[in-house]
Design goal:
alpha+beta, Sulfite Oxidase, Chain A, domain 2, four-stranded antiparallel sheet, globular
């Protein structure tokens, strides 16, 4: 019986993530209409980040080589850490690391393409991976509509979402009764 309950809970969790993905297209269209805006959402939070606001956040530089369908993309990307953006939007609570292990981050581009990250993957209390929202490549601006998630260490560029318009923090459903 526990097996069936657990399977049902996992199915519901998958359906929740798919439903969020279905909603992305509406949010993506809304964000695309507002040039250079990234919508950051989390439990009880929805914040619009303009290119100017993002530019005021501390930035890091990361040299990467990402495999793409068109060959390798190499360069030095610069921008704020994804974690810094989520903290500033209050979409995550750094004082509650126990919540971070059950939170998922969905990053969506203007074309609806979405990549998924675990909050524990980028939370400083856990892995602290330096995933960033790049504003510049090799010192040149990508442009306000062309922000890109860069994941150092990934061999393939599948999670390197380009033209980011939405970042959402989603809590995993509880399996408890």
């Amino acid at each position: 019986m526990n097996y069936l309950r657990d399977r049902l809970a996992l199915t519901l969790a998958s359906m929740t993530i798919l439903a969020c993905g279905a909603l992305d297209s509406a949010w993506c269209a809304e964000a695309s209409a507002q040039t250079g805006t990234v919508i950051v959402t989390g439990p009880g939070v929805a914040v619009d980040f303009s290119a100017e606001t993002l530019a005021r956040l501390p930035a890091i530089k990361v040299g990467v080589s990402i495999g793409t369908m068109n060959g390798a993309l190499r360069g030095t990307f610069e921008g704020p850490l994804l974690w810094t953006i989520l903290e500033n939007a209050e979409a995550v609570d750094p004082k509650k690391p126990h919540k971070q292990v059950s939170e998922t981050i969905l990053v969506t581009g203007s074309d609806g393409y979405t990549a998924v990250f675990g909050a524990g993957e980028i939370a400083p209390e856990f892995e602290g991976k330096q995933i960033l929202l790049a504003e510049r490549l090799d010192g040149k601006p990508l442009g306000p509509d062309h922000l890109r998630v860069v994941v150092p260490g990934d061999r393939r560029g599948g999670r390197s979402v380009r033209d980011v318009v939405r970042i959402a923090v989603v809590e995993a459903p509880s399996l408890e009764k």
